[in-house]
């Protein structure tokens, strides 16, 4: 009896703590449904809920002296295109190098260690030369510039994830293929890669998440709706569009929601990848 | 970093004879372009003065940039601020993270999987959005001050720094970091706690260890290596704090939240710089790279890479 009571108490406490922990995010969702008169009001649930903030994100809006902002759509498309291309590109390149490292010890411990350590480099420290080269190549303010530089963030991550995924593919299967006369490269594409299935999908998803959330790179490499992503668009609410909390929070929800949904879908791989667990 | 690469080059060249290494080349090419090339470029830049708008032809200035960095108090202030933020946020994250992990792994707690999924959320929200979110919360008539008022406490100007409240904003920055990254510590510690074999607990239970004693003498020592890794990872990640600074305060008021990465941004990429030179920016960048490399090397020594990848 005492044990049951303790179970109920602990479970309730845990969920209450987590709910409290998430309250800032719940607050943002609340503000995104509030009409202008309630934006700063200190309560979570809007009294007169409205979809206006979301509608205005789609069309852009002018708020007189408070400011104005353009429609989010072109920025959404830029984010979607650059993140999707980067996701497929780095998941594949990551899987390829991970295979040679995991199966053939390409580059030895040192290369593996080096790639892993790239995850910890502050990107701002290497951005100056990269901005210069992107401008020289004439792809400044385009999604191509972003696609070229995003692997700085995602490639070490996908490589690392795929190493542990490929480790779990039984060695016997590709060894059998080699005995049957398959080349090493052929064995990778025909035997190993198909078997990584959900691992490869998770790795691509995580690459998508990280490039979608990336802020510094698009901030430095884009300046207009030709290439600018949603994260930079959102940041301009803090700078130029005045204190338009409703649309700003709506933008926050629109940008954060897909990330959260995908992150929950791959949460097992995500935690593994971030803490370097085997 | 460079050292790791140079010693592996000779080994790699030998391996290149095998056709399978073709698979690694595109990724290697990308990493050389994105990391090695910029690092070499930065080393070359530090002896020059160059800025596309103000100083369009690169001039060799010798050690001039080193002279500037030594006398540039804003640079050292921003480095100090970064250390201040991380000395506030990292211990808080570790402590709170462990507490949450203990709560989640308690044998009395049900729904542990759901809890873990929910706690993942703050960590995955794009940092820029976190900054905007907290801006509406910490605003002087916002909900945070309302809560303080209802508790009978004095509301504070959190995002501005009037006379007498010099470091409010810096505390806010640390608070955001704690909110965002405590889940990371929690999730890592949950998996560390769960990998401790059950029979260790049973043996300790028979020996009469209970509650805090169990934690102090069994749980904590047995997850020590994860804890140390996480601690160092959080320290090195704190050197990256940029997005939240940009969207919460843009380094202000004044330069009270200008962390080191933000200072690099300000110097290299905005018109607010006192020393608008790519050469000087390169030097600032290399200092950051150096600090990050030292910390990373320590982490890599602790992790047993060999075992993780091939074991």
List keywords for this structure.
heterodimer, A: 278 residues, mainly alpha, MetI-like fold, two-stranded antiparallel sheet, 2 strands, B: 311 residues, 70% helix
Could you state the CATH homologous superfamily of the largest domain in chain B? MetI-like
Radius of gyration of chain A: 23 Å
The number of helical elements of chain A comes to 13
- Identify the CATH architecture of the largest domain in chain B: Orthogonal Bundle
Through-space gap between termini of chain A: 40 Å
CATH superfamily of the largest domain in chain A: MetI-like
N- and C-termini, Cα separation of chain B: 24 Å
Give me the Rg of chain B, rounded. Answer: 24 Å
* The top level CATH class name of the largest domain in chain B: Mainly Alpha
Give a short synopsis of this structure.
By secondary structure, chain A is mainly alpha-helical. Chain A has helices spanning 2-32, 52-59, 73-104, 108-117, 127-136, 143-149, 151-167, 171-179, 184-213, 216-221, 230-239, 245-265, 267-275, and strands spanning 61-62, 68-69.
Walk me through the structure.
The complex is a heterodimer of chains A (278) and B (311). With 278 residues, chain A is mainly α. Chain A folds into 2 domains: 2-50, no CATH class; 73-275, MetI-like fold (Orthogonal Bundle), CATH 1.10.3720.10. Chain A is 72% helix and 1% strand. Chain A has a two-stranded antiparallel sheet. In chain A, strand 1 (61-62) and strand 2 (68-69) form a beta hairpin. With 311 residues, chain B is mainly alpha-helical. Chain B has 2 domains: 1-7 and 22-72 and 275-311, no CATH class; 73-260, MetI-like (MetI-like fold, Orthogonal Bundle). Helices cover 70% and strands 3% of the residues of chain B. Chain B is built from 16 helices and 2 strands. Chain B has helices at 2-15, 25-45, 64-71, 73-105, 112-119, 121-124, 127-138, 143-150, 168-194, 198-206, 211-222, 224-238, 243-248, 260-269, 278-302, 305-310, and strands at 48-51, 55-60. Chain B has a two-stranded antiparallel sheet with strand order 1-2. In chain B, strand 1 and strand 2 form a beta hairpin. In chain B, helix 9 packs antiparallel against helix 12 (224-238) and helix 12 packs antiparallel against helix 15. Chain B is flat, with a radius of gyration of 24 Å. Classes of the chains: A mainly alpha (278), B mainly alpha (311). Chains A and B meet through helix 1, helix 3, helix 4, helix 5 and helix 7 of A and helix 1, helix 2, helix 4, helix 5 and helix 6 of B.
């Amino acid at each position: 009896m005492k044990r049951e009571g303790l179970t109920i108490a602990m479970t309730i406490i845990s969920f209450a703590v987590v709910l409290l922990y998430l309250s800032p995010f719940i607050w943002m969702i609340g503000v995104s449904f509030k009409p202008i008169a309630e934006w700063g009001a200190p309560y979570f649930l809007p009294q007169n809920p409205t979809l206006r903030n979301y509608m205005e994100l789609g069309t852009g809006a002018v708020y007189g002296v408070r400011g104005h902002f353009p429609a989010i759509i072109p920025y959404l498309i830029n984010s979607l295109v650059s993140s999707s291309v980067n996701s497929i590109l780095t998941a594949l390149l990551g899987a390829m190098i991970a295979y040679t490292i995991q199966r053939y010890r390409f580059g030895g411990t040192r290369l593996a260690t080096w790639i892993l350590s790239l995850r910890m480099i502050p990107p701002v420290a290497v951005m100056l030369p990269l901005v210069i080269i992107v401008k020289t190549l004439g792809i400044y303010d385009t999604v191509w510039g972003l696609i070229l530089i995003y692997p700085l963030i995602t490639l070490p991550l996908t490589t690392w994830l795929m190493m542990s995924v490929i480790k779990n593919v039984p060695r016997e299967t590709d060894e059998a293929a080699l005995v049957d006369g398959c080349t090493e490269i052929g064995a990778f594409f025909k035997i190993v890669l198909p078997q990584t299935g959900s691992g490869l999908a998770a790795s691509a998803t995580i690459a998508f998440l990280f490039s979608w959330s990336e802020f510094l790179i698009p901030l430095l490499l884009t300046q207009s709706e030709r290439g600018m992503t949603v994260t930079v668009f959102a940041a301009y609410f803090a700078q130029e569009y005045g204190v338009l909390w409703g649309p700003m929070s709506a933008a926050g929800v629109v940008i954060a929601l897909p990330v959260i949904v995908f992150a929950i879908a791959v949460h097992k791989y995500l935690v593994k990848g971030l803490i370097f667990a085997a | 970093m460079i050292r790791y690469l140079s010693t592996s080059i000779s080994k790699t060249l030998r391996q290149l004879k095998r056709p399978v290494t073709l698979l690694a080349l595109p990724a290697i090419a990308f990493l050389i372009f994105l990391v090695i090339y910029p690092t070499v470029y930065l080393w070359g830049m530090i002896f020059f003065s160059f800025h596309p708008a103000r100083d369009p032809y690169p001039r060799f200035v010798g050690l001039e940039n080193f002279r500037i960095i030594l006398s540039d108090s804003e640079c050292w202030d921003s480095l100090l601020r970064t250390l201040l933020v991380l000395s506030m946020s990292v211990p808080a994250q570790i402590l709170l993270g462990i507490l949450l992990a203990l709560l989640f792994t308690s044998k009395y707690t049900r729904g542990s999987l759901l809890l873990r999924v929910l706690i993942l959320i703050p960590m995955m929200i794009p940092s820029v959005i976190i900054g905007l979110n907290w801006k509406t919360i910490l605003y002087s008539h916002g909900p945070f001050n309302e809560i303080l008022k209802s508790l009978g406490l004095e509301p504070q100007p959190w995002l501005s720094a009037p006379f007498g409240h010099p470091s409010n904003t810096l505390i806010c920055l640390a608070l955001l970091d704690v909110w965002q990254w405590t889940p990371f510590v929690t999730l890592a510690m949950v998996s560390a706690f769960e990998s401790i074999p059950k029979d260790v607990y049973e043996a300790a239970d028979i020996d009469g260890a209970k509650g805090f004693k169990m934690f102090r003498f069994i749980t904590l020592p047995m997850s020590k290596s994860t804890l140390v890794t996480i601690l160092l990872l959080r320290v090195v990640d704190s050197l990256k704090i940029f997005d939240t600074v940009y969207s919460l305060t843009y380094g202000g008021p004044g330069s009270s939240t200008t962390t080191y990465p933000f200072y690099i941004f300000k110097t290299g990429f905005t018109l607010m710089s006192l020393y608008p030179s790519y050469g000087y920016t390169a030097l600032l960048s290399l200092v950051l790279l150096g600090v990050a490399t030292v910390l990373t090397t320590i982490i890599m020594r602790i992790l047993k890479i060999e075992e993780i990848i091939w074991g």
